[in-house]
Amino acid sequence: MTRKKTPLLLFLAILALAGIVLAVLVRMLTTTPAAAVSAAPAATAVAVAPAPDGRTLERGLEHYRSAQKMSAGPKPGRWLVDAETQNGPTRLDGHFLAPQFFTAADGVHYALTAFVADTVDAQGDGMDSFAASGQVRTLLFADQAGDFVLKDSRTLTAGTQGMAPGVRLVRLGEQAWGWQISNGWTHMGYSRENVEFFAARDGHIVPMGELVTSASDAGTCPDASNCPVSTELTASWRLVPEAGKPFYSLEVDWSGRLRGQAIQRKMTLQPDAATLRYPVPKAFNISF
């Protein structure tokens, strides 16, 4: 009797094992894998907040384009305008940044944007001459009787080969916004990069100063052994909120060489209460 039961028990054990294997396979095939999480932190994007009551800036921009005699460009969202630059009369092809709306400490609703334009000859790819500059126009609008009206503007002619510098709308304080303009060039062995800050304050656009973020004359000497690099300086920076302060501090870390001297310095710069300028040491803002 025992011999007859042994094959039966073995058969049942095999069936049970097969059932377990099948269940595992089904689970593997039907389970959704967990999403991969990047170890690197996400880049901080500039938030474009809506107007407090859902309005847009389009009417204000229409008035501005009309006053500047702008015409529609060859691509959607781009505009053509004739402007006077350091190179004489120039045809520009540009676009408006998505506006940032905010409410100041005095309760006034503001909207800021910028018109960023290259020369037409640059063809969007730096095809113009090195000396040709692009243009940035920072624009500040304020709410007046339900419409956003232009309160202040600044024009910055900068860039090379017909290309405008980079522009971002940035938060500069708990209730303060402004513009960050990044520029740079390389020419005849020299290179230089800088960033400038402009704040919207009391209906005006106020310059907060310039910081040179990279400067080098390494390319001026073909033989490094007989002609050591005099300047190879970089500056990393960040805006730092401080409790009770309306505008953020600027934390800067310089490293490298400056006119033959080794440099390693870190400073936290407070904007001047009256002028809003960051007191960047002049020696570090190199101009070749």
Report on the structure:
The chain is mostly beta strands and 288 residues long. The chain folds into two domains: 113 residues; 124 residues, no CATH class. 14% of the residues lie in helices and 45% in strands. The strands form two sheets. Strands 1, 2, 3, 4, 5, 6 and 7 form a seven-stranded antiparallel β-sheet that branches. The longest helix is centred in the N-terminal third of the chain and has 29 residues. The protein is flat. The N terminus is likely disordered.
Residue runs with pLDDT of under 50 for 5 or more positions: 1-5, 20-49
Question: Biggest β-sheet, characterized?
Answer: 7 strands, antiparallel
Helix content: 10-25%
Number of strands: 14
Order of helices and strands: HHEEEEEEEEEEEEEE
The rounded distance between the terminal residues' Cα atoms is 104 Å
Alpha plus pi helix count: 2
Q: What structural class should be given to the helix and strand makeup? A: mainly beta
Tally of distinct domains: 2
Radius of gyration: 29 Å
* DSSP strand content: 35-45%
- The general outline is flat
The overall pLDDT, averaged over residues, is: 83
